[in-house]
Design a protein that fits this description.
The complex is a heterodimer of chains A (110) and B (380). Chain A is built from two helices and seven strands. With 110 residues, chain A is of the alpha+beta class. In chain A, the strands form two sheets. Chain A has a five-stranded mixed beta sheet with strand order 2-1-7-5-6, with helices on one face. Chain A has a two-stranded antiparallel sheet with strand order 3-4. By secondary structure, chain B is of the alpha/beta class. The relative contact order of chain B is 0.10. The chains are: A alpha+beta (110), B alpha/beta (380).
Amino acid sequence: MTVVRIPPTLRDQTGGRAALEARGATVRDLLDDLMARFPQLRERIYTEGELAPFVNVYVEGEDVRTRDGLETSVEDSATVILLPAMAGGSKAPLAAPPPRWRPLPRIRLK
Amino acid sequence: MATPVGTDEIRPEDARERLSEQDAPVLIDVRSDQERAASYIPGSIHLPMADVESRLADVMPDSSRPIITYCAVGARSRRILPTLAALGYDDAVSMVGGIVAWQALGYPTESSSTLDDEKLARYSRHLLIPEVGIEGQERLLQTSILLIGAGGLGSPAGLYLAAAGVGRLGIVDDDRVDASNLQRQVLHSTAELGQSKAESARQSLEELNPDVDVVTYEERLTAENVDRILADGWELVVDGADNFPTRYLLNDASVWHDLPVVHGSIYRFEGQATVFKPFKGPCYRCLFPQPPPPELAPSCAEGGVLGVLPGVIGSLQANEALKLALEIGEPLIGRLLLFDALTARFDEVTVRRDPNCPVCGDDPTITEYVDYPAFCGVLA
Protein backbone atom coordinates (compact mmCIF):
# COMPACT_ATOMS: atom_id res chain seq x y z
CA MET A 1 0.00 0.00 0.00
CA THR A 2 1.20 3.48 -0.88
CA VAL A 3 0.14 6.61 0.96
CA VAL A 4 -1.31 9.34 -1.27
CA ARG A 5 -1.54 12.85 0.20
CA ILE A 6 -4.80 14.60 -0.55
CA PRO A 7 -4.68 18.42 -0.75
CA PRO A 8 -7.35 20.47 1.05
CA THR A 9 -9.00 21.40 -2.25
CA LEU A 10 -9.83 17.71 -2.83
CA ARG A 11 -10.79 16.69 0.68
CA ASP A 12 -14.49 17.33 0.15
CA GLN A 13 -14.27 14.42 -2.29
CA THR A 14 -12.45 12.10 0.12
CA GLY A 15 -14.62 12.48 3.19
CA GLY A 16 -12.17 14.97 4.67
CA ARG A 17 -9.24 12.52 4.64
CA ALA A 18 -5.83 14.17 4.21
CA ALA A 19 -4.03 10.96 3.26
CA LEU A 20 -5.31 7.72 1.76
CA GLU A 21 -3.75 4.33 1.30
CA ALA A 22 -3.95 3.03 -2.24
CA ARG A 23 -2.92 -0.13 -4.04
CA GLY A 24 -1.07 -0.20 -7.33
CA ALA A 25 2.27 -0.47 -9.09
CA THR A 26 1.86 2.68 -11.20
CA VAL A 27 0.35 6.12 -10.65
CA ARG A 28 -2.57 5.14 -12.89
CA ASP A 29 -3.28 2.04 -10.75
CA LEU A 30 -3.15 4.09 -7.55
CA LEU A 31 -5.51 6.73 -8.87
CA ASP A 32 -7.87 4.08 -10.29
CA ASP A 33 -7.98 2.48 -6.85
CA LEU A 34 -8.76 5.84 -5.20
CA MET A 35 -11.37 6.85 -7.77
CA ALA A 36 -13.12 3.50 -7.38
CA ARG A 37 -13.53 4.22 -3.69
CA PHE A 38 -14.12 7.98 -4.02
CA PRO A 39 -15.89 8.39 -7.38
CA GLN A 40 -16.25 12.17 -7.01
CA LEU A 41 -12.48 12.48 -7.28
CA ARG A 42 -12.57 11.57 -10.96
CA GLU A 43 -13.94 14.83 -12.35
CA ARG A 44 -11.53 16.76 -10.14
CA ILE A 45 -8.33 15.17 -11.40
CA TYR A 46 -9.08 13.55 -14.76
CA THR A 47 -9.99 15.00 -18.15
CA GLU A 48 -10.92 12.47 -20.83
CA GLY A 49 -9.24 9.59 -19.05
CA GLU A 50 -5.96 11.42 -18.50
CA LEU A 51 -4.56 13.57 -15.73
CA ALA A 52 -6.12 17.04 -15.97
CA PRO A 53 -3.65 19.79 -16.98
CA PHE A 54 -4.35 21.70 -13.76
CA VAL A 55 -3.43 18.75 -11.53
CA ASN A 56 0.10 17.62 -10.75
CA VAL A 57 1.09 14.30 -9.19
CA TYR A 58 4.44 13.99 -7.48
CA VAL A 59 6.16 10.71 -6.68
CA GLU A 60 9.05 11.19 -4.29
CA GLY A 61 8.93 14.93 -4.99
CA GLU A 62 9.14 14.58 -8.79
CA ASP A 63 6.33 15.59 -11.15
CA VAL A 64 5.22 12.40 -12.94
CA ARG A 65 4.94 14.41 -16.17
CA THR A 66 8.73 14.63 -16.15
CA ARG A 67 8.81 10.80 -15.74
CA ASP A 68 6.45 8.34 -17.41
CA GLY A 69 3.23 10.19 -16.68
CA LEU A 70 0.48 7.96 -15.32
CA GLU A 71 2.61 4.90 -16.09
CA THR A 72 5.32 6.05 -13.65
CA SER A 73 6.01 3.16 -11.32
CA VAL A 74 5.53 3.63 -7.60
CA GLU A 75 7.22 1.78 -4.75
CA ASP A 76 5.13 0.84 -1.75
CA SER A 77 7.15 3.13 0.50
CA ALA A 78 6.98 6.12 -1.88
CA THR A 79 5.33 9.41 -0.99
CA VAL A 80 2.73 10.44 -3.54
CA ILE A 81 1.29 13.96 -3.51
CA LEU A 82 -1.76 15.07 -5.50
CA LEU A 83 -1.67 18.80 -6.21
CA PRO A 84 -4.24 20.83 -8.13
CA ALA A 85 -3.50 24.51 -8.80
CA MET A 86 -4.93 26.83 -6.16
CA ALA A 87 -5.23 30.55 -6.55
CA GLY A 88 -5.27 31.24 -2.83
CA GLY A 89 -6.56 34.53 -1.60
CA SER A 90 -9.64 36.12 -0.30
CA LYS A 91 -11.92 37.29 -3.05
CA ALA A 92 -14.45 34.93 -4.60
CA PRO A 93 -14.70 35.30 -8.35
CA LEU A 94 -17.97 33.39 -8.12
CA ALA A 95 -20.83 33.68 -5.72
CA ALA A 96 -21.18 30.60 -3.55
CA PRO A 97 -23.43 29.67 -0.68
CA PRO A 98 -21.73 29.42 2.71
CA PRO A 99 -20.85 25.88 3.77
CA ARG A 100 -23.53 24.07 5.71
CA TRP A 101 -23.22 24.47 9.42
CA ARG A 102 -22.11 21.32 11.20
CA PRO A 103 -21.96 20.98 14.96
CA LEU A 104 -18.48 20.46 16.35
CA PRO A 105 -17.92 17.29 18.34
CA ARG A 106 -18.22 17.98 22.03
CA ILE A 107 -15.16 17.58 24.16
CA ARG A 108 -15.97 16.64 27.72
CA LEU A 109 -13.48 17.65 30.37
CA LYS A 110 -13.26 15.32 33.34
CA MET B 1 31.91 59.22 39.35
CA ALA B 2 35.28 57.62 38.71
CA THR B 3 35.13 54.29 36.89
CA PRO B 4 37.17 51.69 38.75
CA VAL B 5 39.79 50.37 36.41
CA GLY B 6 42.32 47.54 36.49
CA THR B 7 46.03 48.13 35.99
CA ASP B 8 45.70 46.93 32.41
CA GLU B 9 42.90 49.40 31.68
CA ILE B 10 42.44 53.08 30.95
CA ARG B 11 39.36 55.27 31.26
CA PRO B 12 38.09 56.91 28.02
CA GLU B 13 38.72 60.38 29.51
CA ASP B 14 42.38 59.53 30.13
CA ALA B 15 42.70 57.74 26.82
CA ARG B 16 41.48 60.81 25.00
CA GLU B 17 43.98 63.00 26.81
CA ARG B 18 46.90 60.68 26.13
CA LEU B 19 45.94 60.39 22.46
CA SER B 20 46.25 64.17 22.11
CA GLU B 21 49.75 64.23 23.61
CA GLN B 22 53.07 64.04 21.76
CA ASP B 23 54.27 60.43 21.36
CA ALA B 24 50.68 59.37 21.66
CA PRO B 25 49.94 55.67 22.00
CA VAL B 26 48.63 53.72 19.00
CA LEU B 27 44.88 53.20 19.25
CA ILE B 28 43.85 49.75 17.99
CA ASP B 29 40.24 48.82 17.19
CA VAL B 30 39.91 45.03 17.63
CA ARG B 31 36.25 44.77 16.52
CA SER B 32 34.81 43.10 13.42
CA ASP B 33 34.61 44.69 9.97
CA GLN B 34 30.85 45.26 10.42
CA GLU B 35 31.26 47.04 13.72
CA ARG B 36 34.09 49.12 12.31
CA ALA B 37 32.01 50.24 9.36
CA ALA B 38 29.23 51.44 11.65
CA SER B 39 31.46 53.79 13.64
CA TYR B 40 35.05 54.12 14.82
CA ILE B 41 37.28 56.44 16.77
CA PRO B 42 39.20 58.75 14.39
CA GLY B 43 42.90 57.92 14.11
CA SER B 44 42.50 54.32 15.25
CA ILE B 45 44.00 51.36 13.43
CA HIS B 46 41.61 48.53 12.61
CA LEU B 47 42.91 45.09 13.55
CA PRO B 48 40.17 42.53 14.26
CA MET B 49 40.83 40.10 17.15
CA ALA B 50 41.39 37.16 14.84
CA ASP B 51 44.06 39.02 12.86
CA VAL B 52 46.15 40.28 15.78
CA GLU B 53 48.69 37.44 15.85
CA SER B 54 49.24 37.35 12.11
CA ARG B 55 49.16 41.05 11.28
CA LEU B 56 50.23 43.07 14.30
CA ALA B 57 53.93 43.08 13.32
CA ASP B 58 53.05 44.41 9.84
CA VAL B 59 50.71 47.09 11.12
CA MET B 60 53.03 48.20 13.91
CA PRO B 61 56.64 47.04 13.65
CA ASP B 62 57.80 49.02 16.72
CA SER B 63 56.83 46.83 19.68
CA SER B 64 58.05 49.35 22.21
CA ARG B 65 55.34 51.92 21.39
CA PRO B 66 52.48 52.11 23.87
CA ILE B 67 49.10 50.75 22.74
CA ILE B 68 45.50 51.40 23.72
CA THR B 69 43.04 48.76 22.54
CA TYR B 70 39.30 49.22 22.28
CA CYS B 71 36.24 47.23 21.25
CA ALA B 72 32.49 47.75 21.78
CA VAL B 73 32.37 47.69 25.59
CA GLY B 74 35.89 46.79 26.70
CA ALA B 75 35.79 42.99 27.12
CA ARG B 76 37.49 41.79 23.96
CA SER B 77 40.05 44.59 24.03
CA ARG B 78 41.10 43.46 27.51
CA ARG B 79 41.11 39.77 26.61
CA ILE B 80 43.56 40.39 23.75
CA LEU B 81 46.21 41.98 26.00
CA PRO B 82 48.00 38.71 26.92
CA THR B 83 48.28 37.94 23.19
CA LEU B 84 49.91 41.32 22.64
CA ALA B 85 52.30 40.71 25.53
CA ALA B 86 53.23 37.31 24.14
CA LEU B 87 54.10 38.99 20.85
CA GLY B 88 56.38 41.40 22.72
CA TYR B 89 53.99 44.33 22.89
CA ASP B 90 53.78 44.66 26.65
CA ASP B 91 53.01 48.38 26.97
CA ALA B 92 49.31 47.96 26.20
CA VAL B 93 46.10 48.86 28.01
CA SER B 94 42.45 48.38 27.20
CA MET B 95 39.95 51.26 27.14
CA VAL B 96 37.20 50.67 29.70
CA GLY B 97 33.68 50.66 28.31
CA GLY B 98 34.89 50.66 24.70
CA ILE B 99 33.47 52.86 21.99
CA VAL B 100 30.09 52.81 23.70
CA ALA B 101 31.51 54.67 26.71
CA TRP B 102 33.52 56.94 24.37
CA GLN B 103 30.37 57.95 22.51
CA ALA B 104 28.41 58.34 25.76
CA LEU B 105 30.94 61.01 26.77
CA GLY B 106 30.19 62.84 23.53
CA TYR B 107 33.63 62.19 22.04
CA PRO B 108 33.84 62.14 18.25
CA THR B 109 33.48 59.06 16.08
CA GLU B 110 33.40 58.57 12.33
CA SER B 111 31.50 56.20 10.11
CA SER B 112 32.29 54.76 6.71
CA SER B 113 28.66 53.92 5.98
CA THR B 114 25.68 55.94 4.82
CA LEU B 115 23.63 54.67 7.76
CA ASP B 116 22.97 57.35 10.36
CA ASP B 117 22.71 56.60 14.08
CA GLU B 118 18.96 55.98 13.87
CA LYS B 119 19.40 53.43 11.12
CA LEU B 120 22.33 51.82 12.88
CA ALA B 121 20.10 51.32 15.90
CA ARG B 122 17.01 50.24 13.93
CA TYR B 123 18.86 47.66 11.84
CA SER B 124 21.43 46.64 14.46
CA ARG B 125 20.23 43.01 14.51
CA HIS B 126 20.74 42.83 10.76
CA LEU B 127 24.14 44.47 10.99
CA LEU B 128 25.29 41.75 13.39
CA ILE B 129 24.64 39.04 10.78
CA PRO B 130 27.69 38.74 8.52
CA GLU B 131 25.47 37.82 5.52
CA VAL B 132 23.64 41.14 5.85
CA GLY B 133 25.89 43.64 7.62
CA ILE B 134 26.20 47.29 6.67
CA GLU B 135 26.56 46.57 3.00
CA GLY B 136 23.50 44.31 2.88
CA GLN B 137 21.42 46.80 4.83
CA GLU B 138 22.43 49.62 2.51
CA ARG B 139 21.42 47.39 -0.34
CA LEU B 140 18.00 46.64 1.18
CA LEU B 141 17.41 50.35 1.65
CA GLN B 142 17.91 50.75 -2.09
CA THR B 143 15.75 47.76 -3.09
CA SER B 144 12.32 48.17 -4.71
CA ILE B 145 9.79 45.37 -4.20
CA LEU B 146 6.27 45.28 -5.63
CA LEU B 147 3.49 43.54 -3.71
CA ILE B 148 0.50 42.25 -5.66
CA GLY B 149 -2.30 42.43 -3.12
CA ALA B 150 -2.42 43.89 0.38
CA GLY B 151 -4.45 40.98 1.70
CA GLY B 152 -3.64 37.82 3.63
CA LEU B 153 -0.25 37.21 2.04
CA GLY B 154 0.67 40.81 1.29
CA SER B 155 0.11 41.83 4.92
CA PRO B 156 2.86 39.82 6.63
CA ALA B 157 5.13 40.07 3.58
CA GLY B 158 4.73 43.85 3.49
CA LEU B 159 5.21 44.27 7.24
CA TYR B 160 8.40 42.21 7.36
CA LEU B 161 9.86 43.80 4.24
CA ALA B 162 9.13 47.27 5.58
CA ALA B 163 10.55 46.38 9.00
CA ALA B 164 13.66 44.99 7.26
CA GLY B 165 14.22 48.38 5.65
CA VAL B 166 13.39 47.61 2.03
CA GLY B 167 13.58 51.17 0.76
CA ARG B 168 10.70 51.19 -1.70
CA LEU B 169 7.56 49.07 -1.55
CA GLY B 170 4.78 49.11 -4.13
CA ILE B 171 1.25 47.91 -3.41
CA VAL B 172 -1.27 46.98 -6.09
CA ASP B 173 -4.77 46.57 -4.68
CA ASP B 174 -8.12 47.99 -5.77
CA ASP B 175 -10.05 46.55 -2.84
CA ARG B 176 -11.46 48.13 0.31
CA VAL B 177 -11.03 46.84 3.85
CA ASP B 178 -13.90 44.53 4.75
CA ALA B 179 -14.80 43.09 8.15
CA SER B 180 -14.09 39.57 6.85
CA ASN B 181 -10.49 40.58 6.07
CA LEU B 182 -9.49 41.38 9.64
CA GLN B 183 -9.20 37.74 10.76
CA ARG B 184 -5.89 37.51 8.85
CA GLN B 185 -4.98 40.71 6.97
CA VAL B 186 -2.87 42.24 9.71
CA LEU B 187 -1.96 45.37 7.75
CA HIS B 188 -5.48 46.65 8.35
CA SER B 189 -7.39 47.34 11.53
CA THR B 190 -10.97 47.89 12.61
CA ALA B 191 -10.65 51.66 12.31
CA GLU B 192 -9.84 51.27 8.61
CA LEU B 193 -12.99 49.40 7.61
CA GLY B 194 -14.19 50.68 4.25
CA GLN B 195 -10.89 52.41 3.44
CA SER B 196 -8.76 51.61 0.42
CA LYS B 197 -6.52 48.65 1.22
CA ALA B 198 -3.57 50.18 -0.60
CA GLU B 199 -3.91 53.39 1.43
CA SER B 200 -4.44 51.53 4.70
CA ALA B 201 -1.35 49.44 3.93
CA ARG B 202 0.69 52.55 3.15
CA GLN B 203 -0.22 54.07 6.51
CA SER B 204 0.65 50.91 8.44
CA LEU B 205 3.97 50.40 6.66
CA GLU B 206 5.08 54.03 6.97
CA GLU B 207 4.17 54.03 10.65
CA LEU B 208 6.23 50.90 11.14
CA ASN B 209 9.22 52.28 9.28
CA PRO B 210 9.52 55.85 7.96
CA ASP B 211 12.61 54.82 5.94
CA VAL B 212 10.29 53.06 3.51
CA ASP B 213 8.83 54.87 0.53
CA VAL B 214 5.45 53.27 -0.18
CA VAL B 215 3.97 53.61 -3.67
CA THR B 216 0.30 52.67 -4.08
CA TYR B 217 -1.61 51.56 -7.15
CA GLU B 218 -5.32 51.57 -6.36
CA GLU B 219 -6.17 49.45 -9.34
CA ARG B 220 -6.62 45.83 -10.27
CA LEU B 221 -3.71 44.39 -12.27
CA THR B 222 -4.84 44.08 -15.90
CA ALA B 223 -3.24 43.53 -19.30
CA GLU B 224 -3.69 47.28 -19.87
CA ASN B 225 -1.82 48.53 -16.78
CA VAL B 226 0.66 45.73 -16.01
CA ASP B 227 3.46 47.04 -18.24
CA ARG B 228 3.22 50.53 -16.76
CA ILE B 229 3.23 49.21 -13.20
CA LEU B 230 6.03 46.65 -13.59
CA ALA B 231 8.24 49.15 -15.42
CA ASP B 232 8.10 51.52 -12.42
CA GLY B 233 11.55 50.48 -11.20
CA TRP B 234 10.63 47.26 -9.39
CA GLU B 235 13.28 44.60 -8.95
CA LEU B 236 11.11 41.77 -7.76
CA VAL B 237 7.47 40.98 -7.19
CA VAL B 238 5.73 39.30 -4.26
CA ASP B 239 2.59 37.64 -5.58
CA GLY B 240 -0.26 37.52 -3.08
CA ALA B 241 -3.02 37.56 -5.69
CA ASP B 242 -6.31 35.88 -4.98
CA ASN B 243 -7.36 34.63 -8.41
CA PHE B 244 -6.08 32.73 -11.42
CA PRO B 245 -6.45 35.46 -14.09
CA THR B 246 -4.14 37.76 -12.11
CA ARG B 247 -1.65 34.95 -11.47
CA TYR B 248 -1.35 34.03 -15.17
CA LEU B 249 -1.22 37.69 -16.23
CA LEU B 250 1.49 38.44 -13.69
CA ASN B 251 3.41 35.34 -14.76
CA ASP B 252 3.49 36.28 -18.42
CA ALA B 253 4.33 39.91 -17.66
CA SER B 254 7.12 39.00 -15.24
CA VAL B 255 8.72 36.67 -17.80
CA TRP B 256 8.65 39.43 -20.41
CA HIS B 257 9.93 42.03 -17.92
CA ASP B 258 12.49 39.52 -16.55
CA LEU B 259 11.36 40.07 -12.95
CA PRO B 260 11.53 37.32 -10.32
CA VAL B 261 8.21 36.53 -8.63
CA VAL B 262 7.93 35.19 -5.10
CA HIS B 263 4.77 33.14 -5.27
CA GLY B 264 2.46 32.18 -2.41
CA SER B 265 -1.00 30.69 -2.25
CA ILE B 266 -3.27 29.47 0.52
CA TYR B 267 -6.45 27.51 1.08
CA ARG B 268 -7.97 26.34 4.37
CA PHE B 269 -5.00 24.77 6.18
CA GLU B 270 -2.51 24.47 3.37
CA GLY B 271 -0.16 26.86 1.66
CA GLN B 272 2.44 26.85 -1.08
CA ALA B 273 5.42 29.02 -1.81
CA THR B 274 8.04 29.10 -4.53
CA VAL B 275 10.17 31.50 -6.56
CA PHE B 276 9.77 31.95 -10.30
CA LYS B 277 12.95 33.46 -11.72
CA PRO B 278 12.53 33.91 -15.47
CA PHE B 279 14.75 31.59 -17.53
CA LYS B 280 16.74 30.53 -14.43
CA GLY B 281 13.93 28.26 -13.30
CA PRO B 282 10.35 27.37 -14.14
CA CYS B 283 7.50 29.86 -14.43
CA TYR B 284 3.93 29.49 -13.16
CA ARG B 285 2.86 28.02 -16.50
CA CYS B 286 5.58 25.36 -16.22
CA LEU B 287 4.08 24.40 -12.85
CA PHE B 288 0.42 24.60 -13.91
CA PRO B 289 -0.05 24.97 -17.68
CA GLN B 290 -3.74 25.63 -17.21
CA PRO B 291 -5.99 26.81 -14.39
CA PRO B 292 -8.78 24.53 -13.22
CA PRO B 293 -12.27 25.40 -14.44
CA PRO B 294 -13.83 27.90 -11.99
CA GLU B 295 -16.29 25.37 -10.58
CA LEU B 296 -13.31 23.26 -9.49
CA ALA B 297 -11.30 26.16 -8.08
CA PRO B 298 -12.69 27.15 -4.71
CA SER B 299 -11.44 30.44 -3.29
CA CYS B 300 -10.80 31.18 0.36
CA ALA B 301 -14.04 33.18 0.39
CA GLU B 302 -15.87 29.95 -0.38
CA GLY B 303 -13.69 27.41 1.40
CA GLY B 304 -12.24 29.53 4.19
CA VAL B 305 -8.70 29.84 5.44
CA LEU B 306 -7.08 29.59 8.86
CA GLY B 307 -6.16 33.15 9.82
CA VAL B 308 -2.55 32.41 10.70
CA LEU B 309 -1.85 30.43 7.51
CA PRO B 310 -1.17 33.50 5.34
CA GLY B 311 1.06 34.65 8.19
CA VAL B 312 3.24 31.59 7.66
CA ILE B 313 3.23 31.67 3.86
CA GLY B 314 3.51 35.46 3.54
CA SER B 315 6.46 35.42 5.94
CA LEU B 316 8.11 32.74 3.82
CA GLN B 317 7.60 35.02 0.83
CA ALA B 318 9.27 37.89 2.69
CA ASN B 319 12.12 35.54 3.55
CA GLU B 320 12.61 34.61 -0.11
CA ALA B 321 12.34 38.25 -1.23
CA LEU B 322 15.03 39.32 1.26
CA LYS B 323 17.31 36.47 0.18
CA LEU B 324 16.90 37.44 -3.47
CA ALA B 325 17.55 41.10 -2.67
CA LEU B 326 20.67 40.24 -0.66
CA GLU B 327 21.74 37.45 -3.02
CA ILE B 328 22.27 35.04 -0.15
CA GLY B 329 21.22 31.47 0.61
CA GLU B 330 19.33 29.09 -1.64
CA PRO B 331 16.17 30.63 -3.02
CA LEU B 332 13.10 28.45 -3.66
CA ILE B 333 13.77 28.42 -7.40
CA GLY B 334 12.55 25.15 -8.93
CA ARG B 335 11.22 24.00 -5.58
CA LEU B 336 7.63 24.25 -4.41
CA LEU B 337 7.30 24.28 -0.65
CA LEU B 338 4.04 22.88 0.72
CA PHE B 339 2.89 23.62 4.26
CA ASP B 340 0.10 21.81 6.05
CA ALA B 341 -0.92 23.72 9.16
CA LEU B 342 -2.89 20.77 10.59
CA THR B 343 0.04 18.39 10.67
CA ALA B 344 2.59 21.23 10.98
CA ARG B 345 4.51 19.60 8.19
CA PHE B 346 6.50 20.96 5.25
CA ASP B 347 6.94 19.05 2.01
CA GLU B 348 8.97 20.02 -1.00
CA VAL B 349 8.48 19.00 -4.62
CA THR B 350 10.65 19.72 -7.63
CA VAL B 351 9.38 22.04 -10.34
CA ARG B 352 11.29 21.95 -13.62
CA ARG B 353 11.39 24.50 -16.37
CA ASP B 354 9.35 23.11 -19.25
CA PRO B 355 11.20 23.54 -22.58
CA ASN B 356 7.76 23.44 -24.23
CA CYS B 357 6.30 26.15 -21.96
CA PRO B 358 4.20 28.50 -24.11
CA VAL B 359 5.70 31.56 -22.38
CA CYS B 360 9.22 30.82 -21.07
CA GLY B 361 9.99 27.75 -23.22
CA ASP B 362 12.49 27.50 -26.04
CA ASP B 363 9.89 28.22 -28.69
CA PRO B 364 7.19 30.33 -27.04
CA THR B 365 3.71 30.40 -28.58
CA ILE B 366 2.32 33.10 -26.31
CA THR B 367 4.19 36.37 -26.87
CA GLU B 368 1.58 38.94 -25.96
CA TYR B 369 -1.13 39.32 -23.34
CA VAL B 370 -4.19 37.16 -23.77
CA ASP B 371 -7.71 37.52 -22.39
CA TYR B 372 -6.92 36.19 -18.93
CA PRO B 373 -10.45 36.02 -17.49
CA ALA B 374 -11.52 34.06 -20.59
CA PHE B 375 -8.41 31.84 -20.37
CA CYS B 376 -9.38 31.06 -16.79
CA GLY B 377 -13.03 30.57 -17.70
CA VAL B 378 -14.30 33.45 -15.57
CA LEU B 379 -16.21 36.54 -16.57
CA ALA B 380 -14.28 39.77 -16.24
